[in-house]
C-alpha cells in the first residue's frame, strides 16, 4: 500500500505561487520581445530580466547576496522556461494574456510583500521598506521596458494600479508587522495588492492625471 504524500505546507504553497509568478513575468517580458522583433537570445534575456530583476533588486537592497535566483536556480530555470515558451508561442501567447495577468498580479503581490518583510528584517525605516517592497514587485518590469526602449508602464498606466498597488501592499506590511507574525504581515500585504489590482482593472480605483493644454493623451 502506497504511503500518502505529506500535505503541502503554506510556505511551500507560497513558493509555488512565487514560481508561477516568475513564469508569468518571464512570458510577459518575452511577449514584448517578440513584438519588438528581438531574436531568440534577446527574447530570452528580456523574459529573464523581467522575471528575476525585481527579486535581484530586493535582495540587493536588503543585503541578501547573491540574489535568490542564483542561490536557488529553480527560479532561473522557471524564468528560462517562461521566456522559451514566450518565444515559441509568439503572438499566440496574447490569447492567454488574461490568465497571464492573474499570475502577474500574484507575482507582483508576493514579490512586493516579501521584499517589504526582507527590508524590515534588514532594519530599514518605513519609507525604505515601502520603496524596497515596491521595487521588488515592479523592478523587473521597469528594466524590461527600458531595455525595449519603452516608457515604463508603471509611469502612465493609471487605469490599472501597479506600482501604487505594490507600494500600498508594502505599507500594509509595515503597519501589520509589529502586531502579527512576519508571515501574516506578508500575507496581508499581498492580499492588499491583489485587491487593489482587481478594483483598478474594473475602473473603481485610479490615480488622477494633471491635464496640460495641448498635451497628447
From TrEMBL:
Parts of the chain that traverse the membrane: 14-33, 40-57, 77-94, 106-124, 130-148, 160-177
Key words of the record: Cell membrane, Membrane, Transmembrane, Transmembrane helix
Subcellular location(s) of the protein: Cell membrane
Glycine transporter domain boundaries: 16-89, 102-177
Keyword Cytoplasm: no
GO-annotated cellular components: plasma membrane
Protein name: Putative UPF0126 membrane protein
InterPro entries the UniProt entry points to: Gly_transporter
Membrane topology note: Multi-pass membrane protein
Amino acid at each position: 500500500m502506497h504511503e500518502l504524500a505529506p500535505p503541502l505546507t503554506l510556505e511551500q504553497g507560497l513558493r509555488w505561487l512565487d514560481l508561477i509568478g516568475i513564469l508569468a513575468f518571464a512570458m510577459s517580458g518575452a511577449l514584448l520581445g517578440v513584438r519588438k522583433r528581438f531574436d531568440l537570445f534577446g527574447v530570452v534575456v528580456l523574459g529573464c530580466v523581467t522575471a528575476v530583476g525585481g527579486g535581484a533588486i530586493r535582495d540587493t537592497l536588503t543585503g541578501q547576496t547573491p540574489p535568490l535566483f542564483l542561490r536557488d536556480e529553480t527560479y532561473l530555470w522557471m524564468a528560462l522556461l517562461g521566456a522559451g515558451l514566450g518565444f515559441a508561442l509568439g503572438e499566440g501567447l496574447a490569447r492567454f494574456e488574461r490568465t497571464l495577468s492573474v499570475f502577474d498580479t500574484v507575482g507582483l503581490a508576493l514579490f512586493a510583500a516579501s521584499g517589504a518583510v526582507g527590508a524590515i528584517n534588514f532594519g530599514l525605516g518605513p519609507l525604505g521598506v515601502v520603496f524596497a517592497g515596491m521595487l521588488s514587485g515592479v523592478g523587473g518590469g521597469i528594466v524590461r521596458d527600458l531595455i525595449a526602449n519603452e516608457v515604463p508602464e508603471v509611469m502612465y498606466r493609471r487605469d490599472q494600479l501597479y506600482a501604487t498597488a505594490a507600494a500600498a501592499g508594502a505599507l500594509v506590511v509595515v503597519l501589520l508587522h509589529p502586531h502579527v507574525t512576519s508571515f501574516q504581515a506578508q500575507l496581508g500585504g499581498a492580499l492588499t495588492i491583489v485587491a487593489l489590482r482587481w478594483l483598478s482593472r474594473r475602473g473603481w480605483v485610479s490615480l488622477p492625471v494633471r491635464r496640460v493644454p495641448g498635451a497628447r493623451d
